[in-house]
Amino acid sequence: MGKESFRTIQSLGRDELIDELMEHNALSSDLVVKGYGDDSTVLNHQKGYQLLSSESFMEGVDFDLTYVPLHHLGYKIATAAVSDIYAMNGSPELVLVNLSVPNKISVDMLKEIYRGIGAAGKDYEFQIGGGDLTASHQTLGISISCYGEVAQDKIIYRKGAHEGDAVCVTGDLGGAAAGLRILMREKRFWEEQDQQQAFQPDLTDYEYVVRRQLVPVARKDFIEKIADLNILPTSMIDLTQGLASELQHLAEASEMGVYFYQAALPISLDTRRVADEMKEDVDKYALYGGEDFELMFTLPEEQVEGLADEFSDFTVIGQVTDKEEGIRMQKAEGEVVVFDGSGQQL
Ligand SMILES: Nc1ncnc2c1ncn2[C@@H]1O[C@H](COP(=O)(O)OP(=O)(O)O)[C@@H](O)[C@H]1O
Ligand SMILES: Cc1ncc(C[n+]2csc(CCOP(=O)(O)OP(=O)(O)O)c2C)c(N)n1
Ligand SMILES: [Mg+2]
C-alpha cells in the first residue's frame, strides 16, 4: 500500500471507521432487528428480542497490570459487557470470554481473572458459556461477548427521545477518570523510586474514586426498579465513553438536540477533591472521562416525579430539544457552549 493511501484511524474517527468497515457486510438477515449502532445488537426471538454486546480490553490501552488486580479486571470487563445489555433494558444470560495470553501470565493469574468474571456472574446473573483462548507475544487481551434478552415491548434504544423529555443520568460522573488519575500518579511515583518493592500505594484517601475506576458497577438496580414501577424511558444509553460523546450518540440516534446544565452534572465530592488536587477541571472528568458505566435516559417530564419518589439515585441534567439546536451546555455562569459532532466542546 502506497504511503499516500495510508489513512490513519485518528483521521477518520471511531464512528466513521465502524461505518466504513460495515460497508463490507453483505447480508441483512431477517433475524436482525437492529444491527450495529446501538448498545447491543438486537435479534428476533420467539419470546422477545435477543441482545448481543461485546467488549475488548487490551493491556496498555484499557488497563495497566501494574495497578489492576486481576479479579477486578475480570469483574470490570464483565460489567462493561452487561452494561450494554442493561442499556437496552435487557437482562444478561450468558457470556463468552476470549483471552489472548502472553507467557508472563500464569494459570493462577488467569484464574484470578475468572474469579472476577464469576463474581460478576453472581451479581448480574449470567453464565460463563465458553470462549476462546489464544497465545499473545507481549500483551494480555480479553474480550467478552454477552448474550441477553428483553421483551419486545420493553426494549429501549438510543433512538426514541422526544422533544421536551427530561435527560437524566444515574449515579455520579467522572469518578472513574478521577480514580485513573490517582492510580497513574501513584505509578509515576513508584517508577521514580528504585522499584525494589511491589507496587503497593496507600489509596485509603481515594477509596471511592479508585473503586469507580477498578470495579465499576453496571446499573442492574435501575433496570429492575423501572420494571417494578412500570416506567419505560423513551431512550437510553450507557456511559462508557464520556457524557459528551454519549449525548452525541443518543441525540444523533433520536434525531434530536439536547440542552443541559453544567451545574446539574452529578459529581461526587471525592471526585471534586481529586480534580482540585490535580488542578484540573472536574467537569472535564464527567464530560470526557468515560468508564462510569452509569445509564443516561430520557423520560417525559411528567414521569420524572413518579420515578424520583421511588428511586433517588438519578439526576435530571437537561432536556431534549429540536435537532437544529444541537447539543448545548449552559455553563454555571450562564454562558452557553455548543458541542460539535465529535462530542468536543467548541
Ligand atoms: N469492529 C466493529 N465492527 C462492527 N461494528 C462495530 C465494531 N465496533 C463497534 N461496533 C458497533 O458500534 C456500536 C457502538 O459500539 P461501541 O462504541 O463499542 O459502544 P459501547 O460504548 O456501547 O460499547 C455497537 O453497535 C457495536 O456493535
Ligand atoms: C491504562 C489505561 N488507559 C486508559 C484508560 C481509560 N479508558 C480505558 S477504556 C475507556 C473508555 C472508552 O473506551 P472505548 O474502548 O473507546 O469504549 P467502547 O468501545 O466500549 O465504547 C477509557 C477512558 C484506562 N482505564 N486504563
Ligand atoms: Mg454502550
TrEMBL record:
<dbReference type="Pfam" id="PF00586">
    <property type="entry name" value="AIRS"/>
</dbReference>
<feature type="binding site">
    <location>
        <position position="53"/>
    </location>
    <ligand>
        <name>Mg(2+) 4</name>
    </ligand>
</feature>
<feature type="binding site">
    <location>
        <position position="132"/>
    </location>
    <ligand>
        <name>Mg(2+) 1</name>
    </ligand>
</feature>
<feature type="binding site">
    <location>
        <position position="54"/>
    </location>
    <ligand>
        <name>Mg(2+) 1</name>
    </ligand>
</feature>
<dbReference type="InterPro" id="IPR006283">
    <property type="entry name" value="ThiL-like"/>
</dbReference>
<feature type="binding site">
    <location>
        <position position="84"/>
    </location>
    <ligand>
        <name>Mg(2+) 3</name>
    </ligand>
</feature>
<keyword id="KW-0460">Magnesium</keyword>
<dbReference type="GO" id="GO:0000287">
    <property type="term" value="F:magnesium ion binding"/>
</dbReference>
<comment type="function">
    <text>Catalyzes the ATP-dependent phosphorylation of thiamine-monophosphate (TMP) to form thiamine-pyrophosphate (TPP), the active form of vitamin B1.</text>
</comment>
<dbReference type="InterPro" id="IPR010918">
    <property type="entry name" value="PurM-like_C_dom"/>
</dbReference>
<feature type="binding site">
    <location>
        <position position="114"/>
    </location>
    <ligand>
        <name>ATP</name>
    </ligand>
</feature>
<feature type="binding site">
    <location>
        <position position="84"/>
    </location>
    <ligand>
        <name>Mg(2+) 4</name>
    </ligand>
</feature>
<feature type="binding site">
    <location>
        <position position="291"/>
    </location>
    <ligand>
        <name>substrate</name>
    </ligand>
</feature>
<dbReference type="GO" id="GO:0009228">
    <property type="term" value="P:thiamine biosynthetic process"/>
</dbReference>
<feature type="binding site">
    <location>
        <position position="62"/>
    </location>
    <ligand>
        <name>substrate</name>
    </ligand>
</feature>
<feature type="binding site">
    <location>
        <position position="39"/>
    </location>
    <ligand>
        <name>Mg(2+) 4</name>
    </ligand>
</feature>
<dbReference type="InterPro" id="IPR016188">
    <property type="entry name" value="PurM-like_N"/>
</dbReference>
<feature type="domain" description="PurM-like C-terminal">
    <location>
        <begin position="163"/>
        <end position="325"/>
    </location>
</feature>
<feature type="binding site">
    <location>
        <begin position="131"/>
        <end position="132"/>
    </location>
    <ligand>
        <name>ATP</name>
    </ligand>
</feature>
<dbReference type="GO" id="GO:0009030">
    <property type="term" value="F:thiamine-phosphate kinase activity"/>
</dbReference>
<feature type="domain" description="PurM-like N-terminal">
    <location>
        <begin position="37"/>
        <end position="150"/>
    </location>
</feature>
<feature type="binding site">
    <location>
        <position position="240"/>
    </location>
    <ligand>
        <name>ATP</name>
    </ligand>
</feature>
<keyword id="KW-0784">Thiamine biosynthesis</keyword>
<feature type="binding site">
    <location>
        <position position="84"/>
    </location>
    <ligand>
        <name>Mg(2+) 2</name>
    </ligand>
</feature>
<dbReference type="InterPro" id="IPR036921">
    <property type="entry name" value="PurM-like_N_sf"/>
</dbReference>
<feature type="binding site">
    <location>
        <position position="238"/>
    </location>
    <ligand>
        <name>Mg(2+) 3</name>
    </ligand>
</feature>
<dbReference type="Pfam" id="PF02769">
    <property type="entry name" value="AIRS_C"/>
</dbReference>
<dbReference type="GO" id="GO:0009229">
    <property type="term" value="P:thiamine diphosphate biosynthetic process"/>
</dbReference>
<keyword id="KW-0479">Metal-binding</keyword>
<feature type="binding site">
    <location>
        <position position="39"/>
    </location>
    <ligand>
        <name>Mg(2+) 3</name>
    </ligand>
</feature>
<dbReference type="InterPro" id="IPR036676">
    <property type="entry name" value="PurM-like_C_sf"/>
</dbReference>
<keyword id="KW-0547">Nucleotide-binding</keyword>
<comment type="pathway">
    <text>Cofactor biosynthesis; thiamine diphosphate biosynthesis; thiamine diphosphate from thiamine phosphate: step 1/1.</text>
</comment>
<keyword id="KW-0418">Kinase</keyword>
<comment type="similarity">
    <text>Belongs to the thiamine-monophosphate kinase family.</text>
</comment>
<feature type="binding site">
    <location>
        <position position="158"/>
    </location>
    <ligand>
        <name>ATP</name>
    </ligand>
</feature>
<dbReference type="GO" id="GO:0005524">
    <property type="term" value="F:ATP binding"/>
</dbReference>
<keyword id="KW-0808">Transferase</keyword>
<protein>
    <recommendedName>
        <fullName>Thiamine-monophosphate kinase</fullName>
        <ecNumber>2.7.4.16</ecNumber>
    </recommendedName>
</protein>
<keyword id="KW-0067">ATP-binding</keyword>
